[in-house]
């Protein structure tokens, strides 16, 4: 390897480190808030129909992730320009394992041990908290509040999931409505601050 190749590798390494330590500006507060409203709407719909189907929540999560992802790509390209791909890869590499674990867990529980499905809302909320904390270096510091909220709501949902538990519609809708609105509010506040990267 000659000196030019070595210098190019060093520059690429520095750009990767910069992307990993910069605030990611690809999340749209309005769209994140809308995902919370979608959770409330699905919860109300399921409550009205006395429907406990958690597969609908997995589908909603996939749709919301797709919407947020598409928006994030466009916003990142505008905000981060030449660093956009690195910023997107850095953010995705932190959250994707958590999201994948939640999807696998949901499918396995619903297919193989549906008697434990009542615990899924709490587990999914805990995983959301873990995902937020995993991405924290690229998010506003106040996002620790949202991560902590999901840990608390997940714990409460798990404690309520046995016996005379509220319906899974409420165990999903209320925490995700509040949590996503909280995330959106933090993103909105952060967007008004001066930032670099």
Primary descriptors:
single chain, 197 residues, mainly alpha, 7 helices
Describe the structure.
With 197 residues, the protein is mainly α. It has one domain. Helix content is 77%, strand content 0%. It is globular, with a radius of gyration of 19 Å. It starts with a helix and ends in a 6-residue tail after the last helix.
Précis, in short:
It is built from seven helices and no strands.
Helix and strand topology:
Elements: H1 3-21, H2 29-49, H3 55-80, H4 84-112, H5 120-134, H6 143-160, H7 168-191
Provide the number of structural domains. Answer: 1
What is the overall pLDDT average?
A: 88
**What composes the largest sheet?**
none
Briefly note the structural class of the backbone.
mainly alpha
Distance between the termini: 31 Å
Uncertain stretches:
none
Output the radius of gyration: 19 Å
Strand content: under 5%
Proportion in helices:
over 70%
**Count of helical stretches:** 7
| Outline | globular
